[in-house]
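MODEL INPUT / OUTPUT PAIR
PAIR INDEX: 1
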Amino acid sequence: MPLSQLPQHFDCINSVSLAPALLLASGGEAGHGVSPGITLLFGLLLIGLITCLALEEKLHAKKSVIAGVFALICLLLGAVFGILPFEEIVVGSHEPKPGELEALQIQTEGEGASAGEQTESSPLDEESGAQTESELHVGGHEVSMPVYIPAIDWGVIAIILGSSLFVDITSKSGLFTWIAIKVTKSTRGDPLKLLVAYGIMTVIFSAVLNNVTAMIIVGSLTAVSLDKLRRNNLLLGFLLTEGLLTNIGGLLTLISSVPNIIVGTAADISFAEFFKTAAPMVIVTTAVTLYMASWMFGIKRLKTDEQREEAAALVSSFDENDSIESPSFFWFGAGMLVLFIITIATTSTLPYISDLDMGFVALAFAGVMLLRYKSNPEQFYRALDWDLLGFFMALFIVINVMEHAAVLDAIGVVLAKVIEQGQFVGTAAILVASAVFSSVTDNIPLAAMLAKILSSMNTPTESPFWWSVVFGANLGGNITPIGSASTLVAVTIIHKHKIALSFAGFVKAALPFALVQIALATIYVLAFLR
């Protein structure tokens, strides 16, 4: 229903207005009256965006710049072809309570009659009666805003911004380095124990930090540790394994990776439910990956007492307290990290906080940590990944335009045909396709697009299709070095230490791991989540 047909009684009846939920969510009705030619044109633009993101390194352009250019082109063409909604947006509305629509209709008709107006139709007459109460909102007020503003999922942006700031400031306390060195000492320098300890640490750090930060911390410590232990010949196997494990750790919680945030938010999966579902898969896959790494890279336990004593003496020279500048800030950071994880995990059950959502929690904790550096917060603002935030905003705009151009409808038709093959075939096909796609380009556009499509199909929260996207989008990053930012960081650290590893060499070494991981994920989804 266009806004021109809404009753204009904002002053006298508390802003009564009725509009489709889709209009409120995305700024208009998507895909209505769009010709196949326009859909094809915008579909080619989407393919162009994906191709350019895959060739990001060769183009020497940042993701935000690439997505921003495509967002501008999509918006301009959307305006030219008249597919974008430029009406005023209704905000502050709510789904009607039982009987509320009838009461508002009577009140509206009464006011029209008292003013001598003849009402030929109303929002509830037979012409518009095809819409049910669940499709209508009441209350609210009209706001003029650029068409691209409501296209952006600001909740996702808030989570990324707040979490990044919080983690970056907390790392200044030396907490994460302290944990890493403590773990190193516990292994007494045994290579196999070190691999297992660093692998588990990588998974945990990737779950509570972001993958790139986890890879930098663990990768740097790995290089130092193996150098002191005179085991540089094992560095390639360690770093490659840790790079792969960052994407496994990225599966563990709702905020471990961006695809998790996008898909989990769209599916309305709580933090606790996400963890409960993903944890068994992460534990099994981590164990299998570590076993394969020890076998493929020849990482074994020390055999003699002399070797073990020498390794223990070398490791004991590490001082975990070197990274702690302020003991008070160290313990404050540790306490805030525990509180942050608990609050994020229970957001959906907390009074008041549940209404504000996880984005508020992330920003609030970031604000508390910024108070520690209130006179000099610029260092953390500069360290933020603004390219990632800009990329997200541009990506959401592109996807919103694709929705109005009926591109998502067309993809949804193909996806629906896959799903119609049954949960067994459909689930496996979506997971494998997501993994393959994510291996050659950024997994964020894939997750965002599939989440939008599954949402439009009213896919229930408990459906395994959501998990197919989550597992596929994350694990696909282990197939190639450009499949995820953390594997790219791992390769960068490898090259920094003068170890030759080509693109093909990475694929050759990582592909067996990726195939086993994807197979485990497919079995897990089909056997336990159907």
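PAIR INDEX: 2
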Amino acid sequence: MDIREHLKDGFEVELYEASLRNLENSKNPIALNSFSFSLRELLRNFLSRTAPDSEVVRCCWFIPNEESYNGITRADRIKYGIQGGLEDEFVKEDLGVDLTPVISNMTKKFRKLNEYTHINEKTFNLNQEIVNSESEEILKALQSALDSYALRKTNITDVLWNNIDDSVVHSCISETIQSIDELSSHHSVEEVETHEVCVTQIDSEFIQFDAEGYLQCELQWGSNSDVRRGDGVVVTQSFPFTCILRAPVGDPYLVDTDPSSVRVDNSFWSQ
């Protein structure tokens, strides 16, 4: 995944591209310094956006750092960006993710960026080979860390898939779906197929998912007696649906579907 895909369109993408342009002029004696400064500021903005102070401090794993002016460290922000408020045990044991090397690598690269930001004789007018190798190493570390942000979402849906599917099935079968109900005298949901699920947000309290799939329904016109006499009709039809689910970070397996979020597309029926 390209680094740009993790960034917010506009300022963050533009700043990233501007950072890369600093490396293009091989005759610029502060090429790596300028690259490091702008990339450091990009990461600072990125971490502030993806790990707000108000959310980080509410996580169960958060312990204020006395050396930080607000108690929050860069490592805390990276951790929140990847796992939100999920408990460490769930992340390590259930998701099989060890954040220690990711956080360690990112914090080291931040220190490296800081080193080149402060210009002195040792960091000034470096030869092109050093500029290329150092910038490449920094970008690889950034890519790896940002990919971890996306990977955790895939791991969560894989681990919780059965719970998500069970919740969707229960909600779709137990609730009256207005957009289907209005098509016939009676309807019943015979089968629910959840095809795709993605994590849209993890904060200090909840994981939120978007799900989509198909409902296999029986539509009936007329009463059961009408159907038996041949005066009624029963048709089996499949409808695409979407819905929103969420689970508390303290118990991610407790997935619940928001019944009001279930949307069934019946537009093709009226065409």
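PAIR 2 NOTE: The longest helix spans residues 128-174.
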